[in-house]
């Protein structure tokens, strides 16, 4: 009987869906592509492209786009970071929260007015992170920091859509 229960337990573990809570990547940022994408080199010298979760930074040809990239460079370039990731996107980038010296780099971008809180993917954030990011964006807006200093700023997703339509 004991063997039967053990076999059933093993079988259930194999066939039942497993909830994935995510993984942590630790490595050095060797490249910053833009205001929300970095490349991290791990201990095995494997490079991982990482899309910073929870934000959408301005495109490089948008107002404040270069400032967003430069701010992320100052925050993470050459530093060891932890990436708490939970999935890959259509470009095979890891999607994760990038932590540098105990600071959430994506949240810092939102606070500085250099990225939008990406509401479209808010359900992928913890309830606490959703509240913090939403508050950070509201405060950046109210203080007219970064992209919020211009009248009628265009969200990066709308900017990309307009650019595709113009091609």
Plain-language structure description:
The chain is an alpha+beta fold and 167 residues long. It has helices spanning 2-15, 65-76, 105-111, 127-143, 156-165, and strands at 23-34, 37-42, 47-52, 55-57, 80-88, 94-100, 103-104, 115-117. The protein has one domain (18-149): OB fold (Dihydrolipoamide Acetyltransferase, E2P), CATH 2.40.50. The strands form two sheets. The protein has a five-stranded mixed beta barrel with strand order 1-2-3-6-5. Strand 6 (94-100) and strand 7 form a beta hairpin. The longest helix has 17 residues, at 127-143. The chain starts with a helix and ends with a helix.
Key terms:
single chain; 167 residues; alpha+beta; OB fold (Dihydrolipoamide Acetyltransferase, E2P); five-stranded mixed barrel; two-stranded antiparallel ribbon; 5 helices; 36% helix
Brief rundown of the structure:
The protein is of the alpha+beta class. The protein has helices at 2-15, 65-76, 105-111, 127-143, 156-165; strands at residues 23-34, 37-42, 47-52, 55-57, 80-88, 94-100, 103-104, 115-117. The N and C termini lie far apart (69 Å).
